[in-house]
């Protein structure tokens, strides 16, 4: 093979497999056992202005990272490969009132991959927690989650562990075409409000081959979720897989198309749950819910459909109850092939 052909062949190879330019965090001064917040921000700045595919690499090792705003729009696909353990500040004061530790927004074609662990170091915050979530009116610390994906499209999270988040692990909000595969969530079963993945106003989300063990709902489906697939997921400990709560606010959007398939719930409080507030609006609908091949091992309440969900007496029970319409609910019964052990 002559030299020119070799160049053409390797060019075609790069074009075909999209070999991305690699930006190692060390190039930006990020080294193990140090705070890489500034190094990561600089690497992101370079990645986001690149006109060809880029991969930011954080190799094995332990790093500290404060709140970071991973923001687009960017020009080309970006992969962030994390093989190290990334630690959040354990002290709530250091995060300066922010609600998301690693905050992704206004992006498309993002991949977050690797064997890495994002450790929210929530233990101190769990100890201080009193009462329910912020809206309950009880004294509560501000919500602070490990990952926020806000208005992010065509994204894959592959590998990666979310550990000991201060509150929720992951929020997926306003996203389209978003896949979690081989993802892991871990926190102790008594850690308060550590929901696994909470979804809202998002379409075409897939949660596949994922293990979730945490202190609250493994997956919770908020309003405006459309075409969600949760498949081959293990949940437990935790509070199970929950649709809702829905119907508390008039601005909420319908939920359409949820498939929960081949999931195992182990030692959870609830199995699959639908919870809706009784007040308003009566126009909200939940359509096309499918639960198939669900195995429950030691689950206290395997199936709960609560249309009068009303914690902390937030609603006036004397009012005529206006219930959220659960349409095609027969499909729950038809497809609920539940095995309890
Ligand atoms: C994501 O997709 C939605 C719907 O197609 C679109 O309106 C929005 O602009 C996209 N956002 C980004 C950051 O690409
Ligand atoms: C969804 O996102 C993935 C990952 O970026 C991409 O490969 C795929 O083409 C997208 N699918 C659609 C229908 O846009
Ligand atoms: C069901 O999910 C488990 C993982 O929880 C996986 O090992 C198994 O292959 C899945 N079965 C099918 C038929 O996909």
From TrEMBL:
Coiled coil: none annotated. GO terms for biological process: carbohydrate metabolic process; cell wall organization. Residues 1-20 form the signal peptide. Keywords: Cell wall, Cell wall biogenesis/degradation, Glycosidase, Hydrolase, Secreted, Signal. The active site is at residue 239. One of its GO terms (molecular function) is polygalacturonase activity. It is found in: Secreted, Cell wall. The keyword Chloroplast does not apply. Belongs to the glycosyl hydrolase 28 family. This is Pectate lyase superfamily protein domain-containing protein. The lineage of its organism: Eukaryota, Viridiplantae, Streptophyta, Embryophyta, Tracheophyta.
């Amino acid at each position: 093979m002559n030299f020119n052909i070799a160049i053409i062949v390797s060019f075609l190879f790069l074009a075909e497999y999209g070999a991305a330019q690699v930006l190692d965090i060390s190039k930006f001064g990020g080294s193990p056992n140090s705070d890489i917040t500034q190094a990561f921000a600089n690497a992101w700045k370079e990645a986001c202005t690149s006109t060809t595919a880029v991969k930011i690499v954080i190799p094995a090792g332990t790093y500290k990272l404060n709140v970071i705003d991973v923001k687009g729009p960017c020009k080309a696909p970006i992969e962030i490969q994390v093989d190290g353990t990334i630690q959040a500040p354990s002290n709530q004061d250091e995060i300066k009132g922010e609600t998301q530790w690693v905050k992704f927004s206004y992006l498309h074609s993002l991949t977050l991959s690797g064997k890495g662990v994002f450790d929210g170091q929530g233990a101190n915050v769990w100890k201080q927690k009193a009462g329910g979530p912020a809206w309950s009116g009880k004294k509560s610390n501000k919500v602070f989650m490990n990952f926020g994906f806000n208005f992010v499209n065509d994204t894959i999270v592959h590998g990666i562990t979310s550990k000991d988040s201060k509150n929720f692990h992951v929020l997926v909000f306003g996203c389209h075409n978003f896949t979690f595969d081989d993802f892991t969530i871990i926190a102790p079963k008594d850690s308060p409000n550590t929901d696994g993945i909470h979804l809202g106003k998002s379409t075409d989300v897939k949660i596949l081959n994922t293990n979730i063990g945490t202190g609250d709902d493994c997956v919770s489906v908020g309003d405006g979720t459309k075409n969600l697939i949760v498949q081959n997921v293990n949940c437990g400990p935790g509070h199970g897989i929950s649709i809702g709560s829905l119907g508390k606010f008039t601005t909420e959007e319908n939920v359409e198309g949820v498939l929960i398939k081949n999931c195992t719930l182990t030692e959870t409080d609830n199995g699959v749950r639908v919870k809706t507030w009784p007040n308003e609006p009566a126009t909200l609908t939940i359509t096309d819910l499918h639960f198939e091949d669900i195995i429950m091992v030691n689950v206290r309440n395997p199936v709960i459909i609560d249309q009068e969900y009303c914690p902390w007496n937030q609603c006036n029970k004397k009012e005529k109850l206006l219930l959220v319409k659960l349409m095609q609910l027969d499909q729950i019964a038809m497809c609920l092939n539940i095995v309890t052990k």
